[in-house]
Design a protein that fits this description.
Shape: globular
Order of helices and strands: HHHHHHHHHHH
Number of domains: 1
Structural class: mainly alpha
CATH architecture: Orthogonal Bundle
Oligomer: single chain
Length: 269
Amino acid sequence: MLNDFFIRALVAGAGVALVTGPLGCFIVWRRMAYFGDTLSHAALLGVALAFLLEVDVTLAVFAVSVVIALLLLALQRRASLSADSLLGLLSHSALALGLVALAFMTWVRIDLMGLLFGDILAVSKTDIAVVYAGGGLVLAVLAFIWKPLFAATVNPELAAAEGMRPARANLIFMLLLAVVVAIAMKIVGVLLITALLIIPAATARRFAAGPEHMAVFAAVAGVLAVVAGLFASLEWDTPSGPSIVVAALAFFIVSLLHLGDRRKAGGPS
C-alpha cells in the first residue's frame, strides 16, 4: 500500500503536468525554451528575497519572474542585443544574484538541492491546493487567450491586422509562465521546470493532429512522466525530480520511434 506522502506527490506532480503541458506547447512552437529557463533561474532570486523580506516564497518567486519578464520586454525594445543574448544575461545574472544573496544570509538554513531539483515527496495538502488553484486559473486564462495567442505565434503581423492584440496576449502568456514557475518550483525545482515544460510538449508533437490535440497530449505525457518517474524513484531510490524528467525523456525517445515522418498539424513548425 502506498504511503500518504507518495500519494500527495503523485497528485501534486499530476497537477503541475496538467498545466505545463499546454503552456509548453507554446514554448515549443515559439522556440522560447531559453525564456522558460530564464524564469526558472530567476526563481532562486525570488527565494532569496522571500527570506530577506520575510514574505511568502511563492509570491516572491512570482513577483521576481514577472519583473524579469517585463525587463526582457523593455530591453528588447531598447537594447541592440539579440533576444538570446538578453535571455542569457538575465538568466545567469538572476541565478548568480540569488546564490550570492543566500550566501550572505548566514542566519538562513535552506535546502539548496531541494530548491534546484525539487522535493516533491515533501509536498503538503496546502501545496497541492496551491498547485490546483493556481493551475486551474492558468488554464482558464490560457483557454481565454488561446485564439489570439496562437494567431500571434503563427503570424504576429496578421494577428495585429485582425485586431487580436498579440502584444497583450504575449504579455499575459509571460505572466502565466511566471505563475507556473512559482507553483512548480517546490515540485521539480528551479533547474527542472523548463524540462517539464518542453519535453512532454515535444513528445506530444509527434502524435498530435492539431494544436488543441497537442496541448491535451502534452498534459497526458507530463502526467505519465510524473507517475513513471515517481514509481521509478520509489523502486530504485533515485531523486524524485530528476527521475520525473528522465521518465519524460524516455517517453520522448519512444516517440521518435513513431512511424511516419509526415508533417503534423500540431502547431507552427
